[in-house]
Amino acid sequence: MRPDGPRPTIVGNSDGPEPPYPLKLDGKVIKGFGRGSKDLGIPTANIPLSGLSVGGHEDLESGVYYGWAGLSPSQAIEQQQSSGSSQYKLMKTEVFDKLSSMLADAATPAPTQGAVYPMVMSIGWNPFYKNTVRSVEVHIMQDFQTDFYDSHMNLLIVGFIRPELDYVSKESLIDDIKTDIDVAGRSLSRPAYIALAKDSYLSSFEGKGEIAS
Predict the structure, then answer these.
(1) What whole-number percentage of the chain has pLDDT above 70?
(2) Model confidence pLDDT, tens digit, residues 116-132
(3) Which entry of 18, 61, 94, 137 is annotated as an active-site residue?
(4) What are the record keywords, sorted (predicted)?
(5) Contact criterion met (CB below 8 Å) for 62 and 134
(6) What is the distance, to the nearest Å, from the Cα of residue 169 to the centroid of all Cα atoms in its chain?
(7) Distance between CA 145 and CA 7 in Å, rounded?
(8) CA distance 137 to 33
(9) CA 118 to CA 140: how far, in whole Å?
């Protein structure tokens, strides 16, 4: 159940992630439960649960995290970059504008190396939908014109936002996810976190299969 009272608007130490963060995990983007876009209006990219075993993170607490996602080259990225559009409707305008401004000054991979985007992700059972399996669901904070299934995704998790909760309604779940997105946007819009978007790991895909070793 969602606790009463206002939520923090920003999380994590301003000087940068504290141990055990940042954490790295990756995998091939697979089809999930099909409800992110259709039911919630918040699309997610799923990776196999076995991705949590990378680096010994299988016991990672269920909840919501934030960080950076590197996507291998795909038609979806080419379309997004060629459109010149950086609109994203799920984040408050002032939060999005600040994050975009800071990212514009950061080095980005060449199109042939894929792309790096801010992300918010959930790891857990999603009790509102009564999942019977634990899942890794990543929401990339960027609008895409097409899907990118089978792309490889490298995740750099830089912090924890909140524990997994159950909800009395779909509307309250959506409200909390949108708050998660704003919290992630604000938290990433700090120099120590922007710098992590340049980590070469995020755009390193050579030799990677569905799950990194």
Answers:
(1) 76
(2) 999 999 988 765 556 65
(3) 137
(4) ATP-binding, Flavoprotein, FMN, Kinase, Nucleotide-binding, Transferase
(5) yes
(6) 23
(7) 32
(8) 10
(9) 6
Closest of 56, 27, 36 to residue 155, by C-alpha: 27
User: 112, 200 in Cβ contact below 8 A?
Assistant: no
Contact status, residue 143 vs residue 80, Cβ threshold 8 Å: yes
Q: Which two tokens stand for residue 158?
A: 């830089």
Specify the pTM: 0.86
3-class DSSP state of 196: helix
Is residue 78 among the annotated active site residues?
no
What is d(CA 72, CA 208) in angstroms, rounded to the nearest whole number?
10
- Under 8 Å CB-to-CB from 186, ≥6 apart: which residues? 9, 10, 95, 98
Residue 134: Cβ within 10 Å count: 13
Q: pLDDT tens for residues 13-33?
A: 999 999 999 999 888 888 765
Band of pLDDT at residue 73, cut at 50, 70 and 90: confident
